[in-house]
Amino acid sequence: xxxxxxxxxxxxxxxxxxxxxxxxxxxxxxxxxxxxxxxxxxxxxxxxxxxxxxxxxxxxxxxxxxxxxxxxxxxxxxxxxxxxxxxxxxxxxxxxxxxxxxxxxxxxxxxxxxxxxxxxxxxxxxxxxxxxxxxxxxxxxxxxxxxxxxxxxxxxxxxxxxxxxxxxxxxxxxxxxxxxxxxxxxxxxxxxxxxxxxxxxxxxxxxxxxxxxxxxxxxxxxxxxxxxxxxxxxxxxxxxxxxxxxxxxxxxxxxxxxxxxxxxxxxxxxxxxxxxxxxxxxxxxxxxxxxxxxxxxxxxxxxxxxxxxxxxxxxxxxxxxxxxxxxxxxxxxxxxxxxxxxxxxxxxxxxxxxxxxxxxxxxxxxxxxxxxxxxxxxxxxxxxxxxxxxxxxxxxxxxxxxxxxxxxxxxxxxxxxxxx
Length: 420
Ligand code: ATP
Ligand code: MG
What we know:
The chain is of the alpha+beta class. The chain is built from 15 helices and 16 strands.
C-alpha cells in the first residue's frame, strides 16, 4: 500500500464503529475523578523542549531517546508532549493557580507521543488519563490518589489488577542509597546493558526499572531502597500503608518500582495487570514534591498518576468485560418515489427536532438495499413510504428486533407515540 494511505508506525485510528468504547471508558473516568474533586485542564500538544528536559529529566529514556522534537520555523525547539505532568505544572505556575486555594487538582485525557518500538501495548501516539494534585504533603493525599485510580479500575469490574507500592525516599535519603546501589551495580558492570552502563553513574535507580532480562536478574538482588529511608520518609510510607489498609485497598510492597521519570519522591505506585508481561502496567504514578520548585515555582507538593487508555481497553477486553454499544437510529425511513422521499425527509427532520435519532435513505436505491442498510445501522424501527402510504396517510412501522409490523399514521406525533 502506498505510504500516503498508511498511518505512521505506532499510531492507530480510532474508527467510528469503535469510538463508543473510548467514549464509554472516558465517561466513567471523568465521572470518577470529578467525584474526587478534579476538573479538566487542556494544555497544548507541544511545549518548549526545555520543559520536558527539565521536568521529565534528562537521564530518562523519554528525554534521552523517545521525544518527538523539532525546530519550528523561528528555530525554537519544541517537543510533542510525551507525558502530561510537566505541562500541568508549567500551566499551574504560569497561571498562578498554586498561590490560590490548596490542594489544587486537575485531570486530563490527552494523547502523548513517544518514539518507542511499537508492539502490543506500546504505541508512539497513545492516550492517558492523568490526575495531578498540588499542595498536600500528607500521606492522606497519596492514599486518596491511589483510591481514585482504584475506583476507576473497579468501576469496570476488573479482577486481575494488582497494586504495587514503594517509596523511593527524598533527595536526602536517596543520596545515600544511590551510593550503595552504585557500588552494587559496579560489581556487575560488564553484564549490564549499554543503557544501564550509562545509567550507573548518572542515575543508578533507573537500572532497577530496566526491561532487559539480564539487568532485571542483576537488579533482583540489589539492596532495597526501603532499608535506606530516613525517619520522615519511613513514617510517611508506614502511614500510607495504614491508610490503604483502612480503606480496604489491597497492595503489595515492591521495592523495585522506581517509575520511569526523574522527578518522583517518596511514594511511587503501579497498577499492573496480572500475567500481561512487560506491557502490564495500566497505571503508574507517585509523588513529585520537588518538581514545582525545580521548574521555577515556589516549593509545592505534587502527586498524581497516568493511566494508559489503550492498555485499559485491552485489559477490559481480556477480562471479557462488555462495553455497552450505542443504539442505532430510532427510526429509519425507507421510501419509493419522489413523494415518498419528500415525506420520509420531512418526517426525519421532525423526529430529529423532537430529539430522536432518525435517518432516511439518501441514495434512493431499491427497497431491499434500503432495508439492508437500516439493518446494518441496527435501527429500532423502519417505516416504509410509497405512493399508497401517501394516499392513505398511514404506513407499516416495523420493529426490527422482532420483525413485527404495526400500522402507524404518517405524522411525527403518531410515530413518536409508538416508539417511545
Ligand atoms: P512502561 O514502563 O510500560 O514503559 P512508563 O513507565 O513509561 O510505562 P508512564 O510514563 O508512567 O509509563 O505512563 C503512564 C501509563 O501510560 C503507563 O502505565 C501505560 O499504561 C501508558 N503508556 C506509557 N507508554 C506507553 C506507550 N508507549 N504506549 C501505550 N501506553 C503507554
Ligand atoms: Mg516507558
